[in-house]
Write a structure and sequence with these properties.
elongated, 77 residues, single chain, mainly alpha, 4 helices
Length: 77
């Protein structure tokens, strides 16, 4: 089921994560802003929730990909 993630080029995934994690840089990255709103309990608008997902999902995919790669390398030893 996660084979598509294993086939996706890691470099492109890192570039997408970096781009979406800091976009826009000014006045504050959306990911930081939305996480702050989430911690303060003010993340209630559907567009803000969508924006948080848009900026956070690639980061979660990268984490899963790196975890799967590390697990695969350990099993090959």
């Amino acid at each position: 089921m996660m084979g598509w993630l294993d086939r996706f080029p890691l470099l492109w995934l890192v570039v997408i994560v970096l781009w979406l994690a800091v976009a826009p840089i000014v006045p504050e990255p959306h990911l930081v802003e939305k996480l702050r709103m989430l911690s303060q309990g003010t993340l209630v608008k559907p567009i803000d929730i969508f924006d948080l997902l848009l900026h956070a999902v690639p980061l979660a995919l990268l984490a899963v990909r790196l975890w799967r790669d590390a697990r695969r390398r350990r099993s090959e030893r």
